Amino acid sequence: MRNSGLKPAFSDLLITTLLTALLLPVYLFSPVSNPADTHYEMLVSHQLLRHGNVDLREYFQDPEAMASYPGFSRMTSQTLPYHVEQDEGGRILYTYPHGSAVLAIPFVAICEAFGLSPVTADGNYDPAAHERMGQILAALLMTTAMLLLYAAGRCYLSPGRVLFLVGSIALGSAVWSTAADAPWTQTWGVFLLSGAFLAVARADKVNRAPSPIFMALLFVAMCFVRPTFFLSGFPIFLMLAYRFPRKLPMLIICCIITGLLLVWFYVHFDLMPVKERHQVGFEFDLTHVIYSAFLHTVSMSRGLIPTTPIVVFCLWLLFHGGRPAFRHPLVLAGLASLGLHIAMLANWTFTGGQCFGSRLTLDVVIWLPMIGCIGWAKALEQQRRIGRADCVAAAALAAAGMFIHSQGALRNETLFWTSWPVDAHKNQERIWSFRYPQWAAGLIHDAPSIRAPFVFDGFAMMSNTSNTYNQMIFGRGWGDIEADFRWSVQDRSYLHFNLRELQDIQLEMTMGAYLDPPRVAQQRVRFYLNGRKAGESVIKDTGLREIYLDLSRNDLARLNTLTLIFPDAAKPPPAGEVIDDRMLGIKLHRTAVHSVTRTR
User: Directed axis angle between helix 185-206 and helix 212-225, to 10°?
Assistant: First the structure.
């Protein structure tokens, strides 16, 4: 790389300013947001800030308000969203690690000072405000993490080379498509690990140990927000013990003290033991291990290498640096962390659920620029050139990663892919598809050749009599399957369908009504397509009937939501000791989509 003529300090200032100006808006305004497991996280922050406890019971007292809360997948049997659980004492607790919520308290305090809060004026949870707060926090954390990573890389390599590696990770990995759209535990972990990299790299450069107190706080905080970050923190701890043995006793003491503070938090708020859902089993099965290891490394939709191709260049740089690169303590720590993570994931086939790409390997993605920087620096020390063909290949890998993750950050179809036509978590053969990987969902509109079961993960596939659309699924507000129909169980329910091509269509629905005269003499059904009123019907008898909606291509999109509102929905009367809390409106038997040229 040619010398730009700029002084290093000015060059670094210019690059960090440009990185901030680029990454923060990109992260902040990328339209696809998937809060998923992070819902209610900052509600815990609010509760700690305002009331000094983690009990969310007061926000789950109003059934009408709770109907709009995220996380209800089966309304007939589920009384709380999957994010929270009720303990024996009646408290309602967030079931994921509380570290992220604790660290977010200052951010929540600032937001509330400016009028943005996860709680409404009447004391109910506000999912929309919570999601917006999460987007802002995640964007700030990831932008800062990339700046810290750049500063750490500069301890070994020139500005332009570090910028290339950091930029490739910032926009060509799940850092953009996943970590920057919601404050996942990985989001916080990547931020904290970047801070650890900077402290260790500067200590390596000046040959002086970093502050034991600061490092202990980072180690404990990483484990607090996501226990699996222990697999990154412990190799760094060993590296510091090797490089600065005289500081080891103080580092151990500081880790013990901060660890005791963590134990105090769990004991004080009675959060022990750790929820079973966060425990990972390690029963050895060779077939299982091989399958999982391949899944998390080479799957087209969940593998680290296909979804983050810059991995190949970073590892090539390491080999190009030769033995001196492999002997570097930070590289050894990184390789140990990578190996430990793969070993853990090889005993855990969970694919990352309703996320984009290789979220579960985010813990190790952040190591790649550091490994690449050290490998590149050692190659230059040995006068091993990076040829023009190597640079072209590296640029192609970086561009491929940026393209893949731009799909996850900019196209809602990639999020819809996780549940259509079958749930990707429960039907893991989908993650091996070369024809229809997740990142291609916004580009390929033909239905993939996958046989879909009738029911999956709380949703149901609907029948169709034409090939006009890909598939339709039940969204929120529907009960479990009963024979060949489903009841609507709220005052509004949702249907989602994905069109292959935009054209005028006719939607046919076969339904019956819940009636209980004279208390419920009729059922009015109001239809809204993508937020616009599309029709209304009144059902006054219990027999099945067909309802037709003519929908204009001007009101349709590739992904569509049909909202059904039931003003007359009512709870059935008690049958002995059995109390049915469902708000019944209609029972839907089938749907079909026709082009307008077809007759009834």
Answer: 160
Question: 508: which strand partners?
Answer: 548, 592
For 5-38, how does the pLDDT look when each residue is reduced to its tens digit (9 = 90+)? 445 677 889 999 999 999 999 999 998 888 888 8
Whether residue 490 contacts residue 473, with contact meaning beta carbons closer than 8 Å, is answered with no
First to last CA, the chain: 69
Cα 148–chain centre separation = 22
- What number of other Cβ atoms are within 10 A of residue 419's Cβ? 19
Q: Which residue type is seen at 584?
A: L
Secondary structure letter of residue 275 according to DSSP:
P
Q: Token pair 């008898």 is at which residue?
A: 541
Amino acid at 276: E
Pairwise CA distance, residues 382 & 324, whole Å = 9
Whole-angstrom Cα distance, residue 252 to residue 241? 10
Torsions phi, psi of 255, nearest 5? -65, -40
Q: Which two tokens stand for residue 342?
A: 């793969």
**Is residue 430 within 8 Å of 419, Cβ to Cβ?**
no
User: Where is average pLDDT lowest: 185-189, 297-301, 304-308, 557-561?
Assistant: 557-561
Separation CA 406–CA 177 (nearest Å): 7
3-state secondary structure of 125: strand
Q: How many C-beta atoms surround the C-beta of residue 287 within 10 A?
A: 7
Q: How far apart are the C-alpha atoms of 5 and 41, rounded to whole Å?
A: 48
CA 451 to chain centre: 26
Percentage of residues of the chain with pLDDT beyond 70 = 87
pLDDT digits (tens, 9 = 90+) for 426-458: 677 778 888 888 898 878 755 444 433 322 222
3-class secondary structure, 37: helix
Residue that wins the pLDDT comparison between 484 and 407: 407
Q: Which residues are 539's β-sheet partners?
A: 523
Chain centre distance of CA 181: 8
Q: What is the Cα–Cα distance from 39 to 62, expressed in whole angstroms?
A: 18
Rounded to the nearest 10°, the torsion over CA 403, 404, 408, 411 is 50
pTM of the model: 0.75
Whether the CA torsion 192, 197, 198, 200 is positive or negative: it is positive
Which residues are CB-contacts of 279 (< 8 A; sequence separation ≥ 6)?
none
Sign of CA dihedral 40, 41, 45, 47: positive
SS (H, E, C) 507-557: EEEEEEECCECCCECCEEEEEEECCEEEEEEEECCCCCEEEEEEECHHHCC
Question: pLDDT (tens digit, 9 = 90+) per residue, 359-403?
Answer: 888 889 999 999 999 999 999 999 888 888 999 999 999 999 999
Kindly provide the b/e burial profile for residues 452-487, where b requires at least 16 CB atoms within 10 angstroms of the residue's own CB.
Answer: beeebbbbbbbebeeebbbbbbbbbbbbeeeeebbb
Strand partners, 591: 509
Tokens at 558, concatenated: 């590739």
CB count in 10 Å sphere of residue 509: 22
User: Average pLDDT of 544-565?
Assistant: 84
